[in-house]
């Protein structure tokens, strides 16, 4: 009996369900399938919202619509509640490339997945997001190692080697260029290189131009402000940096 219940639950998890709302007996308001164009429109709006409202990390692409629920809204319109499964792309959120042009990060790069619960309001045919909650987590390291023992796994962003590698790269860039002084926005990703270069990390980080020259920055770094608006120059670099072991 237990097995039967488990099986029933499992098959429910596997199929995308348009979930009727309310207590028993269910008061079915309007049932939509996950592959309905209207559901897909809501999901596209949700993904766009998520990508424009997170300040860190990478843009997400839609992998799967897990659930959809439509409820009436007072005094008018409808509420859509979506459960979405998202995949990390290689476009950082500061990258101006549209999502359509971003590639989904390969499994072998130790990608991150996002699970999001999003609530949208639809009034006069227009969707707007009223809330979005996401939880992201990297794929299991064991799964990756099983398929690809040499693949670089994610390293913690606060690893001292990572901070060191980024500081070196920034210092070099700022000493070379005649351009404005650039400031670190975020270390977005770090991976340990396992086999090719022992004790090295690859880092990806986002920077922005400031209103200072290198000389200004030397004299009064605290006064250097990140440029915003049309002047923003956000650069995003993947770099492979060998770091000597301290051992
Ligand atoms: C994005 O891709 C489309 C179609 O492949 C292409 O026409 C467009 O130029 C690309 N945009 C950018 C900014 O690369
Ligand atoms: C990095 O962060 C983790 C979790 O926040 C913490 O446990 C660890 O001590 C930190 N490591 C360093 C080198 O700061
Ligand atoms: C950069 O902007 C800040 C804030 O507006 C200002 O205090 C500072 O003097 C500016 N620095 C330079 C070099 O223009």
UniProtKB/TrEMBL annotation:
Q: Does the keyword Glycoprotein apply?
A: yes
Tagged with keyword Disulfide bond: yes
- Annotated GO CC locations: blood microparticle; extracellular matrix; Golgi apparatus
| Single GO biological process annotation from the record | negative regulation of bone mineralization
| Main location per the UniProt record | secreted
Compartments where found: Secreted
PROSITE patterns in the record, alphabetically? CYSTATIN_FETUIN_A, FETUIN_1
Q: Which residues form the signal peptide?
A: 1-18
One example GO MF annotation: cysteine-type endopeptidase inhibitor activity
Keywords in alphabetical order, please.
Answer: Disulfide bond, Glycoprotein, Repeat, Secreted, Signal
For the Cystatin fetuin-A-type domain, which residue ranges apply? 29-139, 146-247
Which superkingdom is the protein from?
A: Eukaryota
Please report the name of this protein according to its UniProt entry: Alpha 2-HS glycoprotein
């Amino acid at each position: 009996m237990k097995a039967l219940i488990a099986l029933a639950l499992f098959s429910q998890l596997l199929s995308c369900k348009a979930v009727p709302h309310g207590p028993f007996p269910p008061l079915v308001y309007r049932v939509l399938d996950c592959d309905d164009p209207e559901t897909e429109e809501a999901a596209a709006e949700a993904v766009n919202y998520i990508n424009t409202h997170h300040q860190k990390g990478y843009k997400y692409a839609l992998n799967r619509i897990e659930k959809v629920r439509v409820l009436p809204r007072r005094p008018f319109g409808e509420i859509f509640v979506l459960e979405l499964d998202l995949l990390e792309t290689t476009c950082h959120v500061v990258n101006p490339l549209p999502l359509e042009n971003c590639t989904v990060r390969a499994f072998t790069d130790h990608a991150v997945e996002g699970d999001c619960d999003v609530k949208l309001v639809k009034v006069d045919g227009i969707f707007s997001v009223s809330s979005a909650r996401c939880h992201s987590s990297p794929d299991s390291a064991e799964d990756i190692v099983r398929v690809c023992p040499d693949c670089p796994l994610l390293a913690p962003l606060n690893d001292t080697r990572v901070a060191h590698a980024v500081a070196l790269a920034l210092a070099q860039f700022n000493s070379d260029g005649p351009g404005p002084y650039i400031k670190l926005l975020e270390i977005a990703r770090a991976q340990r290189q396992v086999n090719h270069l022992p004790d090295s990390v690859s880092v990806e980080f986002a920077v922005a131009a400031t209103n200072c020259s290198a000389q200004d920055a030397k004299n009064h770094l605290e006064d250097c402000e990140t440029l915003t608006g049309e002047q923003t120059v956000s650069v995003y670099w993947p770099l492979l940096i060998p770091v000597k072991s301290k051992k």
